[in-house]
Write a structure and sequence with these properties.
Elements (H helix, E strand, L loop, with lengths): L1 H58 L3 E5 L5 E4 L1 H7 L3 H4 L17 H5 L5 H6 L3 E6 L5 E12 L5 E9 L1 H22 L9 H14 L4 E10 L1 H8 L1 H18 L5 E6 L2 E9 L1 H17 L2 E3 L2 E3 L2 E8 L7 H17 L5 E3 L2 H22 L4 E9 L5 E12 L3 E3 L1 H10 L3 H22 L5 E6 L1 H4 L4 H11 L7 E6 L12 H12 L2 E7 L5 H7 L4 E4 L1 H6 L4 H16 L3 E5 L4 H10 L3 E3 L12 H8 L7
Parallel strand pairs: 11-12, 14-16, 16-17, 17-18, 18-19, 19-20, 20-21
Antiparallel strand pairs: 1-2, 1-5, 3-4, 4-5, 6-8, 6-11, 7-8, 9-10, 13-14, 13-21, 14-15
Bound molecules: ligand C2E and calcium ion (2 copies).
Ligand C2E binds next to strand 14, helix 13, helix 14 and strand 18.
Length: 619
């Protein structure tokens, strides 16, 4: 019994002793479970992360690479493989430099084998661009971005991301090319490839600024009769002449000179460091000879002539615009002297230029203030002996120089682009004179005025003419418009705007006379194509006809032809009775000339008419 009790107590004591231990065990069991749970969730998290990495690598649009420091690929993502057209296995162990398009900078296999990255290089390298080749040979632009990584185990790697930027590169190349092209177009002439006006202006300004101790020369070159080449052989021949001229100038000018095309058939050569007028003249002559050299084009030999005007800067203070004006004036003189020559702006020319400028401003003023004068030259019918009308002729009384004839100042008016304005005034004077003649009791007389091409093409011309004639109650058939035969009626006469104006004038009921007929080369074709009512046979032919059998034959045929065509024939420049008589015999209707009367000032008309109208034939 006591044994049993002892045993029981013993067991009880053991149980008591074990209780904390068991408690401890239960507690630790719980901890273990927590630990396991935490480990499990860490694992899940890690797995999740690596799945994200995989997702990111597989679906990233950029190619991704891990290389060792010798450049060998250890790992690549799908995009990289797709971009290059190789499988993963084919890529491992290769160096991306192998995919670079071969050119002179491509590394050799040996260089690739010896390739090594440095840490510094990887950490500092900016974006790189390579033209790569895919497996199928197609090319693409690859933009690389490299970085450095060192693993905990000490392994070093290059991490590369790459992107196919072909579209961007092509776009920016196109843009750059377009920019370059635009820049070139802005400064160069499209046809000849030489600098244009704006490049020339920039160059000459620079040359003048630099020219402290030396002189700058400017040559202004104009192709003579360029229009004729265009009209005869067509525009491509004209283009060939321009290209030839540009090349001839380029190859003859000195290296420091600038040759530019500044207008249709106009070129300039800027000559820095030129040693005075002698050197400039010698250079201009060489340039002229080179341009005038004949050349073959499409089985025809083309040759152009040139007029050259030149000027020298007087000091570095000379402005390019002054040099331009001076060389331009010299060119104008070269043309006036018969073209195909060189004229330099020397002291003599400078004097003439100043006179011209004074004249120009006085002329502008005269036109502006309706300050020109008019004289009227009578025309007479050879059949009835009656005065049929007058031609209005402009005169300019310059306060300094006195009366200047139109042939002396009209070229200047033309240069000032004022021919249209001047002719509107002549038209006004003609209509006023017509009114005066009606008032004086000569209601049927025809008054004519000269119409330049500028007047014909003046937008206000016909409207103003009709309005003035209507306002004055004048019969339109008593107004004649004299149009020069040399007016450009275009290759296809019917379509030219001047020809259309003549038609409109005729439709409106005015008379239209072709002036100076017989000297223009389109001659007879004009008679057939233009809507005219009469011709004025050129005074050169008329005044020669009694001495020169050819002129006589031409005048006779022209009179005959015009009579056949029912056109009025007026012979001008008739200076004697014999000529008037001969014209009468031929059947010429009307004469005008010194034999009958010189052009008369308006105040002399009443008296003159009173004496001549009834019995005009001289004794
Ligand atoms: P045109 O229209 O042929 O005028 C005839 C010219 O010959 C006039 O010269 C006249 O004075 C001159 N003349 C007349 N009869 C004779 C003669 O028997 N012998 C000689 N040797 N000459 C004679 P003008 O007035 O000096 O005019 C010259 C040219 O100026 C005109 O030639 C005409 O083309 C132009 N012109 C004159 N006035 C105007 C105008 O208001 N507008 C335009 N656009 N041109 C005009
Ligand atoms: Ca005339
Ligand atoms: Ca004439």
């Amino acid at each position: 019994m006591s044994y049993f009790i002892v045993t029981f107590i013993g067991l009880f004591a053991i149980v008591l002793m074990l209780i904390p231990l068991l408690r401890q065990l239960i507690r630790e069991g719980n901890d273990l479970r927590d630990c396991l749970r935490a480990a499990q969730s860490d694992l899940v998290e890690t797995l999740k992360q690596s799945e994200y990495y995989r997702l990111a690598c597989d679906h990233a649009r950029d190619g991704l690479l891990v290389q060792d420091m010798s450049g060998k690929i250890i790992w690549s993502n799908r995009s990289f493989q797709k971009m290059h057209g190789y499988s993963e296995d084919e890529i491992i162990g290769r160096n991306p430099l192998e995919f670079v398009m071969p050119d002179e900078n491509t590394p050799t296999p040996e260089e690739i084998a010896n390739f090594r990255y440095t840490r510094e290089e990887l950490e500092t390298q900016a974006l790189q661009l390579f033209k790569n080749q895919r497996r199928d040979g197609t090319e693409f632009w690859n933009q690389l971005n490299v970085s450095y990584n060192k693993a905990p185990d000490g392994q070093e790697h290059a991490i590369v991301s790459c992107r196919d930027v072909t579209t961007d590169v092509v776009k920016s190349n196109t843009l750059r090319e377009a920019q370059k092209r635009l820049q070139r177009e802005a400064t160069h002439d499209g046809l000849t490839g030489i600098p244009n006006r704006s490049a020339f202006l920039k160059f000459i300004d620079g040359a003048l600024i630099r020219a402290h101790s030396v002189t700058v020369g400017l040559l202004h070159i104009d192709l003579d009769r360029f229009k004729e080449i265009n009209d005869t052989h067509g525009h491509s021949a004209g283009d060939a002449v321009l290209v030839h001229a540009a090349q001839a100038l380029l190859s003859t000018a000195r290296e420091k000179d600038l040759v530019a095309r500044v207008g249709g058939d106009e070129f300039v050569v800027v000559c820095p460091d030129i040693d005075g007028f002698g050197a400039l003249h010698a250079l201009a002559t060489r340039l002229m000879d080179a341009v005038c050299e004949p050349f073959e084009w499409s089985n025809v030999i083309l040759q152009s002539e040139v007029s050259i005007g030149g000027a020298l800067a007087k000091s570095h203070l000379t402005q390019s615009k002054d040099l331009l004006i001076e060389s331009d004036f010299a060119l104008y003189e070269a043309k006036r002297l018969g073209r195909n020559c060189v004229v330099l702006y020397d002291q003599d020319l400078e004097k003439r230029h100043h006179l011209q400028m004074r004249r120009a401003s006085a002329l502008m003023e005269a036109i502006d203030t309706d300050g020109l004068d008019y004289v009227f030259q009578p025309k007479m019918s050879l059949f009835s002996g009656e005065i049929t009308g007058f031609e209005t002729l402009v005169r300019w009384n310059d306060p300094n120089e006195g009366t200047i004839p139109p042939n002396d100042f009209l070229p200047l008016v033309d240069d000032l682009n004022l021919m249209g304005a001047l002719d509107l005034l002549s038209m006004k004077a003609a209509i006023a004179q017509k009114r005066e003649l009606i008032r004086l009791g000569y209601p049927d007389m025809v008054v004519a005025f000269n119409a330049s091409p500028e007047l014909l093409n003046h937008p206000e011309f016909i409207n103003r003419l009709v309005w003035m004639v209507e306002a004055a109650g004048i019969n339109r058939a008593h107004i004649a418009i004299e149009v020069l035969e040399t007016t450009n009626f275009g290759v296809s006469t019917i379509q030219s705007s001047s020809a259309a104006i003549l038609r409109d004038l005729r439709t409106a009921g005015f008379l239209v006379h072709l002036d100076d007929f017989g000297i223009g080369f389109a001659g007879l074709a004009h008679l057939a194509q233009l809507d005219i009512t009469g011709v004025k046979i050129d005074q050169g032919l008329v005044s020669n006809m009694l001495f020169d059998p050819t002129s006589l034959k031409i005048v006779r045929k022209l009179v005959e032809l015009c009579n056949d065509l029912d056109l009025a024939v007026i012979a001008e420049g008739v200076e004697d009775e014999e000529t008037a008589e001969a014209l009468h015999q031929m059947g010429c209707g009307i004469v005008q000339g010194y034999w009958l009367a010189k052009p008369l000032p308006p105040e002399d008309l009443p008296d003159w008419l009173a004496h001549h109208h009834k019995n005009p034939m001289r004794a």
